[in-house]
Amino acid sequence: MACPFPGSRSNGTGSDMGKTWNGSGRISGKADALAALQRVNETARSRGNLALVPQPVTTGDQASVQGDVTGVLPCDFRLQPLLPWPGGLRKGATVAAVGSTSLLMLLLAGAMRDTGSWGAVVGAPMFGGQAAAEAGIPVDRLALVPEPGPDWPQIVSALIDGVDVVAVQPPPGAAEGVLKSLSARARQKGCVLLPTKPWAGAELTLDVTGRHWHGLGNGRGRLRHCELDVQATGRGRAVRPKRATITVAGEPIPPIVVPPAPPRPVEPVVADTGRWAHLEPSPLPADPWAGLTRTSYTAPNRSRRDRSAGNVTT
Q1: Residue 185, Cβ density class (10 Å: 0-12 exposed, 13-18 middle, ≥19 buried)
Q2: Alpha-carbon dihedral sign for residues 284, 289, 295, 296
Q3: Cβ–Cβ under 8 Å, residues 19 and 11
Q4: Cα–Cα distance measured from residue 111 to residue 89, given in angstroms and rounded to the nearest whole number
Q5: How much is the pLDDT for 216?
Q6: Where is the region Disordered (predicted)?
Q7: What are the E-state strand segments in 146-239?
Q8: Which of 57, 76, 247, 291 maximizes the CB count within 10 A of its CB?
Q9: CATH number assigned to the domain covering 69-248
């Protein structure tokens, strides 16, 4: 590890840990390294530009052990295994939530619910306030800009300056340079940027690769919950892909079992002998042809002429 200041050396044994390094020579031990970092921080304070740095300069082991809990927004426990930062979303990070509005709502709800933070959603006209409230997002601290128009970069930049979490759906064909500049501004202001599409310069991308709805039976039922297959990729600590299946839209609800209704008793058919007992069945109708007798019919004799004899016989 080289230093731009020439001069003496330190023995690096740890005995001079409390001494101030005078900036001369090459760093030869941990004491010189810590002294150099202390000089960098003191120089930044004296110049009044420490605000440009998210946190004072430290060594890598201190950052990994101590962590920066003050620079982290909480996250839903279902998404925590996919994040490279302990405790939640690092302030100033750009985390792309691609493929599902439910995933975006989980990120917003976890970061805003118990912290008093403010959030904004830009360029997503289908983002509904009722669904956001049901997902646990405090809508009284959520600003919606459904149609930002061509000046959307300026609107997002202004929101980054005063809002803790900003979700943005960039229009098609957004310039890569604009996306990177917005990420740089979010990093400087300590705002968590949540784009809903692949974003140039994002530290982490959460991509929904599959979804499975549950609750429908064989021709009956209703949708009860959904399982999302999420893959996390990114840079730095997130360079190794991670996968997880999370449940949204409520936890699995056991099906409602309705007991069958008891069978209705079959009433026996009893002949009614009281009300109609005095009535007798009607006789069969009389045959109108029954009184008629069949008689034979004899045709009367007719005179005929005996053509052969020329006589008439009767």
Answers
A1: middle
A2: negative
A3: no
A4: 8
A5: 77
A6: 1-23, 279-314
A7: 165-168, 192-195, 204-216, 221-234
A8: 76
A9: 3.40.50.300
